[in-house]
Design goal:
- By secondary structure, the chain is mostly helical.
- Among the domains are: 6-97, no CATH class; 177-250.
- Helix content is 76%, strand content 0%.
- It is built from 11 helices and no strands.
- It has helices spanning 6-16, 30-41, 47-54, 65-77, 80-83, 85-94, 96-129, 135-167, 178-208, 212-227, 232-249.
- The termini are far apart.
Length: 250
């Protein structure tokens, strides 16, 4: 089975960084998809038809555009844009829901805020304990967080292009990818761990003074409750009460 070359995937990922530059109310990201796929469309004898198919309405998470791009390239190479234009348009329109819902859930609701919170926690920890004093070192820490944020997104795009090119039309079944389910579980645990760190750290500093034992108790309780989908307010309150009890007996 023909697969995308590494050079093609790198080109697609690079061009996809500008997918929302031409965002508009009529086609949303449609013009962005045309920009990304233009090198694969411009030399086709069916260029006019393919431009209409590719640039129609489509919207979703920018990173998860890789799922649509790989599938579109596969269908274009199979001649679906010419043989089944109406079906192709309906299929393209139907991609918006899964690409937006799954992408927003994993990246906007989990990865991005969790990593931002981790940055806040590390900054607060450094202010209190003055672990890193050099301005250059602090800048390197910030750059490391930016790199840490983008490396998984690059890897996700790379993997998604391979998966979607192989599946073609069947790419709609995003929920059937075991890797995405595992990714969601991992991000939930990462977000819960970061939230637990911040909650325990803040509670102990404000109400108790610093204590590693109290910190550990607050962290474990907050992490466990957030993993169980207990609200943040209740998790923090119970962690505070547990930390107060521990402080009494230490």
């Amino acid at each position: 089975m023909k697969r995308l070359k590494s050079s093609e995937k790198l080109r697609l990922i690079w061009r996809s960084l500008w997918i929302q530059v031409l965002l508009n109310y009529k086609t949303m990201q449609g013009a962005g998809y045309l920009h990304i796929l233009w090198p694969w469309v411009k030399d086709s004898e069916h260029r006019a038809n393919r431009v209409r198919r590719v640039s129609g309405f489509l919207n979703g998470h920018p990173v998860f555009s890789a799922f649509a791009l790989g599938a579109m390239l596969k269908r274009l190479s199979d001649g679906d844009a010419e043989n089944e234009p109406e079906e192709f348009d309906a299929w393209r329109d139907s991609l918006a829901g899964p690409l937006g819902m799954v992408g927003d859930s994993l990246i906007w609701e989990r990865w991005k805020p969790a990593l931002l919170a981790l940055g806040v926690f590390l900054t607060s920890f450094n202010i209190l304990f003055n672990v890193v004093t050099s301005d250059v070192a602090l800048l390197l820490v910030l750059l490391s967080l930016i790199i840490l944020y983008n490396i998984p997104l690059f890897a996700l795009r790379w993997w998604a292009l391979d998966e979607s090119y192989e599946k073609g039309k069947a790419v709609l079944s995003l929920g059937g990818y075991p890797a995405l389910h595992s990714l969601q579980i991992g991000l939930d645990r990462f977000a819960a761990a970061v939230a637990a760190c911040i909650a325990a750290f803040a509670l102990l500093l404000v109400f108790l003074g610093f204590s590693w034992i109290g910190f550990g108790v607050g962290f474990v309780i907050t992490f466990a409750l957030m993993q169980a989908r207990v609200s943040v307010a209740v998790s923090v309150l119970l962690a505070l009460l547990a930390s107060l009890i521990v402080s009494v007996f230490i």
